[in-house]
Amino acid sequence: MLKNFNELLNRLNTQKKKKIVVAMAEDSDVLLSLEKARSGGLAEAALIGSRKLLDMIAIAKNLDLSNYDIINNEDEKSCITEAVQMVNRGEAQVLMKGLCSTKLFLKGILDKESGLRMSPVLSHLAIFESPNYRKLLMMSDAAMNIAPDLDEKIAITNNAVTAALSLGYKQPKVAILSAVEKVNAAGMPSSADAAIIAKMAERGQIKNAIIDGPLAVDNALSEHANAVKNLISPVGGDADICIVPNIESGNIFYKLLTVLGNAQVAGIVLGAKTPIVLTSRADSDQSKFLSIAAALTIS
Fold it and tell me: How far, in whole angstroms, is CA 33 from its chain's centroid?
């Protein structure tokens, strides 16, 4: 169990220094977050993009680009291809999106011949440090899979569990969320999916995790809610990971925790040969830095 991002950073400090490669790196927020990681001794970085634009940003932000490997390339598609190839060649352990379009970036990752996909599904994992929860909380998927079916939810769950194991968890507690804690297959199909996934874990089809569902979000995170509802659950009130039913619920979960709950957050994409840092333009420098740190720790 990790209580906060400081514990995650301490874990990263004990690891061998790794390298991040950025496709179309000419983005000031990305460069500032990379500089924080580099100056903190966490990672090295390779920047693929326009040398001219990179130099302009460096002057404006007072950055020394001599600390980075720079590959001058002004073509979006070939920037992505080169970044993916660097990961495939073992020259970088984390891939990060810069100014390139998300569509082209993911297309390069999913290319059947030269891409990076390992899992049946790529999924987004958010990691929150909330002042209202006693430890880090992971949630998936708020950004990649719009309306996952049962098989996709199983893959999303496996991706999240694998990430938690890489973070040092022995048996992460996973809550498969719905709006209620009782199965209502006809009226609320997500409750039936949750029950199936929980039973699969119970019978060893999903390994190295304690999984329960369906659980409403209060059951997953509040011991008091379980006591009031007389719900006995090995996960209830103590979840490490929440798996949401669809992208709408995940998006609401994410934004409520960050906007109203004052949570710090890191976000990465799982299911490829390496963790992928794919942040929103609205994310803060700190969020981008924490995303880099999480990806480095998991890689």
Answer: 16
pLDDT in tens, the chain (299 residues): 899 999 999 999 888 889 999 999 999 989 999 999 999 999 999 999 999 999 999 999 999 999 999 999 999 999 999 999 999 999 999 999 998 988 999 999 998 888 999 999 999 999 999 999 999 999 999 999 999 999 999 999 999 999 999 999 999 999 999 999 999 999 999 999 999 999 999 999 999 999 999 999 999 999 999 999 999 999 999 999 999 999 999 999 999 999 999 999 999 999 999 999 988 777 778 899 999 999 999 98
Give, as one character, the DSSP assignment of residue 67.
G
**Topology of domain 16-118+272-298, CATH:** Rossmann fold (3.40.50)
Is the peptide bond prior to 141 cis by the omega test (within 30 degrees of 0)?
A: yes
Break the chain into its structural domains and give their ranges. 16-118+272-298, 123-264
> Minimal CA–CA distance to 116: which of 97, 141, 89?
89
Domain 123-264 of CATH type 3.30.70.260: no
Q: What is the CA radius of gyration of the chain?
A: 20
CA distance 211 to 233: 9
